[in-house]
Amino acid sequence: MTAVATRRVLSHHLARRRSLVVPVDAEARRQVVPVTCYEVDKLPPVDVAFYERARSMMRKIDQVVVPPREGRCFQVPAGHLFRIVCAEGPQVGDLNLWCSDDLGERSEKFYASKTRQLQATHLSTGDRLWSGFPYLRPIATITHDTLAWYRGDDFGGGVHDVIGSRCDPYTNAVIRGEDYHHCCHSNLSVALSTSRTFASIVATDDPVQAARLAEPYVHDVLNVFMCTGFDRNTRKYFMKSTPARRADFLEFFAEIPLLGALSACPGGDCGASHSDDATQCYPLLVEVFETSALNEWRGPPPVLTSVALLAIFNIIPKLRGVFQVSAYSRTHGLRPGRLPPH
Ligand SMILES: [Zn+2]
């Protein structure tokens, strides 16, 4: 049976069961051709030659081992590179990134869903990781992916996704009715709460309180090495065993100073389950590199979020290109002293 015929039978079945009204032109509406949502060709270009030069002149300066079912933080100065490596075997990692100069109330951090829209559902070499509002700028660029060969599979799956979130104890409690304490969400919360950067803004000696205070900073992740997709028929999120093997890595260039947190998911290769202690898990390795190819590299301009300054840029738009990262004025159509129109 063709896909169209299957849908007709399904629509008829649903209409009978739920008293749905299926319009006579339902199939014609489905056949409307989609358009790309964003004009991504207008995004800042990726200077491939520069990143290749940076890679050819890199030297390892630091590393952090993330034990199985745990999380760890790491620092990457702007203009440095870092790799996430499957150190001993197939292992999925959940990655959070923050601007290490700005971990506070208006923390600049990785924005997975906007990255999904601007780049793709699954990331690889040349893709960029974007930060949230009001910043919206590339905070890291993927410079190498040993799994770039995978591209996609017959199930609709791909590697390194930004379509899932992270395994967490809340969903686990709803579905299984039990507490599990080593989900990636908890691992990331605990890792952040014990980092020096977090300790510099939050003063508490109570580890439980520190983890609770760190939890709101944890955000949707880049699922490193995870193989995921949506089932074409049910549209449900699926995972399958990662194609990653020992020594596979994903490598990034830090466009801004980064504080990272990485969890070695309790799902291991995420081929069968997550949120339990039964699955084989391996450590992940984070390696940090400096590069001597930064002569012509200019980091992004400073982020200005002052509404007063942005108002000046509104009057003199040319200044925006000099100082402002985000092109948006942040007025939301409002004018000082005037009430909204409703
Ligand atoms: Zn996980």
From TrEMBL:
Cited Pfam families: DUF1989
InterPro entries per the UniProt record, alphabetical: DUF1989
Name of the protein in its database record: DUF1989 domain-containing protein
Domain DUF1989: start-end pairs: 65-259
Species this protein is from: Chrysophaeum taylorii
